Amino acid sequence: MHREAKLGLILLLTPLLLWLVLLIFIPHIDLFLVSMRERVGVGQYDLSFANYLTFFQEPLYLVTFLRTAVMSIFATILTLLIGFPVAYYIAKMAKGRTQSALFLLCLVPFWVSELVRTFGWMILLRETGIISNLLQSVGLANGPVEMLYNDAAIMVGLVYTSMLFMVVPLVTTLESLPDEVVEAGYDLGGNGLSVLREIIIPHAMPGIVSGSIVVFMLCLGNYLTPTMLGGKESLWFTELIYSQFIVRFNWELGAAFGFLLLILSSVIVWGMLRLTGQSLEKTMG
Amino acid sequence: MIPSIPQSRLLTTAYAAYVVLFFIFLALPLIVVAGFAFNDSQFPSLPWEGFTWNWFFGAERPMIGVFHERSILRAIGTSVFVAFCVSALSMVVGLSNAFLFNRYKFRGQGLLYVFMLLPLVIPGIVLGISILVASSRLANGLWDGFQWDVEALRPGLWLVILGQFSFITTIATLVIGARLQKFDRTLEEAALNLGAGRLTAIRTITLPYLAPAMIGAFVVAFLMSFENFNTTLMLVGSDAPLTIAMFDRLKEGSTPLLNAVSLLLMLGSSLLALIMIAFQKRS
Lengths: 285, 283
Fold this sequence. Notes:
CATH class of chain A: Mainly Alpha
CATH superfamily of the largest domain in chain B: MetI-like
Number of domains of chain B: 2
Strand content of chain B: under 5%
Shape of chain A: globular
Strand order of the largest sheet of chain A: 1-2
Structural class of chain B: mainly alpha
Number of strands of chain A: 2
Radius of gyration of chain B: 24 Å
Structural class of chain A: mainly alpha
Order of helices and strands of chain B: HHEEHHHHHHHHH
Strand content of chain A: under 5%
Number of helices of chain A: 13
CATH topology of the largest domain in chain B: MetI-like fold
CATH superfamily of chain A: MetI-like
Helix content of chain A: over 70%
Oligomer: heterodimer
Number of domains of chain A: 1
Order of helices and strands of chain A: HEEHHHHHHHHHHHH
CATH topology of chain A: MetI-like fold
CATH architecture of chain A: Orthogonal Bundle
């Protein structure tokens, strides 16, 4: 029996280890090694920090990196602020069939590909688009209005695409808050604002953290939305990675960029977990 | 604010209005994409030129419908093939992982569980380039060392499948693991008491119990693979899956053909989702 259990363990460990080692660990080590080499001749490479130095010396790279980070944080906060009241409504205000219908409606945009969603925003926002035409017919604008190809359009696209990943964990945590606890808060003399601050938000914290982590990750790593909705000036860091790899074929620099993106996202995710005292297993699992 | 605590009419009305606005915001892009699939014009934008089915069934230029556009049909076929391979693989590995974390206690298990979750917090584009770099280095090494040319290690469908599998497996593991956690172990013990072997007990008791979660994992994996963009973009070769093919066309300028494809995608994924919900309800 004991031997059988050991055999079972080995059999189940094998696929897991193969997956993690071959597709996650070795590729990332390779990525790091490639980012640490400098081309000195045909097929000849030296170990060096040259690619990372290039990153810090070229303002365009550094500025794009910081801009991507700041805009992703901003998009995450915006998604939380817009999504929280809706999640609260679904979890606490709506009852029965309305509740499950509203929850299902939130999931619908997730079932269609991100490309389709972005395409929808392009049709709405562009010069010949719906909103521009609407504004003209109401008389608020004299000519066609171009709302595409700027940072605001990127923001709209990012918030839209990430909304589901914020609302679902929020609804799940808020649903577990008993009505009696909220009532007790009011009985003890609290008002709407203090109940929200002292009871509802602390209770929703795990949902807020896991939602924010996922949304932040999705914004930071997004390629489609900034490329399609953003203009020439609104460059996203993933676009730099893509152009180094596919267009310029400078894998060394592209690998360094990729590694920096990975470090940035890990640091922010780790910081968010530490700040709120959560762990990865609890928020993701 | 909860229904049992009285609030001013104004506040509750404003709140409800906000929620309605939110759902309009959610629905708007999808509605316009679907609507313009029927516009009798070369561009998916106003003015409205009348209703047509041509973007679905049209057979002649300038309006070639989805069902006559070979490149789009081929891309759909490619996507289905990739999605099928990814879902099958990740469902099997996810099942194995779920059993591993649920049934065994061993040293380093907690750490391994965190490692298992990691692919979810790695940006998709980084997963893509890391696999691209590793496989190219391996391919070059095999060529330099043994003169073997391994086509599967060059950008193409096999790499796309591996790239998507590398993070979708985590999701499959979580979906199947959540249901396995709720399983009543005594049922399995009863089967053992009745003389069944361990594998027979698992096959006849545990696996049927897990079936809805396995189907759920398969469907979710299928949808995620079908709509994946970032990882696929870095690993794709000459056969582009649908999202990449559509992206390339969108860059050149869009025609309502793309709206028609999008509408079909929406219908397809809603259908899959409904099937999944029906399955979950029945069990």
